[in-house]
Amino acid sequence: MAKETTKKMTEGNPLTLILGFSIPMLAGLLFQQMYNLVDTIIVGQILGDSALAAVGSTGSINFLINGFCMGMCSGFAIPVAQRFGAESYDSMRKFVGNAIVLSAIFSVVITFFVSIFCYKILGIMQTPDDIIDLAYSYISIIFFGIPVTFLYNLTAGIMRSLGDSKTPTYFLIMAAGINVVLDIVTILGFKMSVNGPALATVLAQLIAGLSCVVYMKKKFPILKMSRKDLTPGPHHTKVLISMGIPFGLQYSITAIGSVILQTAVNGLGTIAVASMTAGAKVSMFVVCPFDALGGTMATYAGQNVGAKNIARVKKGTWTAQLLGTIYSVFILIVLFFAGRYMLRLFTKTDIIIEQAMMFLLANAVTYTLLAAVNIFRFAIQGMGFSTFAIYSGVMEMIARILVAFTFVPMIGYAGAIWASPVAWLFAVFFLIPGFYSCCNKLEKKYRTENSHYL
Asked: In 3-state terms, what secondary structure has residue 363?
């Protein structure tokens, strides 16, 4: 049965493997974004622009905290993929067991601290007075669901590390449907305002996470663990932390720049916040293929590094970049002609639609850079250089801070829309040379190891 649920990415055509693995991931990401889209559409159309701005004003802090949690789970999955590629299954199970323990600890600690400081952070971010209470109501519920975030992302990450990108998607699709129903019930039925979509998101993700747990127990005998596997071990814990924390920090460091930029945008008023929110929601949906390609490369690179095949890592990475570039051109054309219709899902206010369209097009013309950021960064992380990948996050953070303190004060909203393109450019300048540096280090390491056996 293990043969039916696991998949090797160390042999076969890279293009076929990458497409076959990334398409289910893409479906999952699209349905995950559907959570957010449905929340935002209902909030914007039924509760109004102020509620829309309130939810949108929490986007960067949400990414800062939950991005760290999701990043940690992705990092914890890297050693699993590497041991699976090397066919070292005893060590793989030990990594899975230790990752479960660490996730439980980190989820409790993070939830405790963000619950205490959440409102203060919103104040520091200059969230407008007319929406700060709504923003806090929404994001506090999301943050109480941090353990649920760990549950789903860890179990999904482990399954993907073993080559199964379809099953987590199926459960996410199921959860998305539940989320839609709960949105309608909580807002229209129970009149819960922004609290309803937040609660619906947490409950839907809980269902997806528990479904992953049940499935793994039944369908992955290769993961059958003993108590010994769940006992923290110094070596396995150290490796997991060395992968997980840098992976999480990479998200958070990037988000720090977003928080600072959001603070600058908040100072421009509710219309600017709502415009960025609407534009960002559409953008988050259309960039899912880049996220899917990135997640695919983490597993692909991890398994092939385990098999000591660096040439295959290089070939697969550039194959993924070609796919990302083709999609970038396609989606630019789509947004140019259909972007305004997409934005009307969130708001009927003309000025918000026009400003959000400016944001969308500024991002779309540089999406090929975003493709490179995701693909090369995740490939580097899959190869085991999580700390190295943090530096690209630092470059993005610096770029967004520069925009916040220079472009926004000078030209206002028109400056803010270029923050992400500048950030992606900064990151790419670092990532591509960094990728080849990591490849060279591993090739040198393997040559040295081989010489010892001669």
From this structure: helix
Q: What tokens appear for 35 in the block?
A: 């959570």
Other CB atoms within 10 A of residue 436 CB: 11
- Dump pLDDT digits (tens) for 131-158: 899 899 999 999 999 999 999 999 999 9
Instruction: Note the pLDDT tens digit of each residue in 363-417.
Output: 999 999 999 999 999 999 889 887 776 788 788 888 888 888 888 888 888 888 8
Return the structure tokens found at 172. Answer: 């996410």
Max alpha carbon distance in the chain (Å)?
Answer: 73
Predicted TM-score (pTM) of this structure:
0.77
Helix, strand, coil percentages (3-state) for the chain, rounded to 5, are 85, 0, 15
Radius of gyration of the chain (CA): 21
Distance of CA 208 to the CA centre of its chain: 17
| Range 6-39 burial, b when 16+ CB lie within 10 A, else e | bbebbeeebeebbbbbbbbbbbbbbbbbbbbbbb
Domain ranges of the chain: 2-449
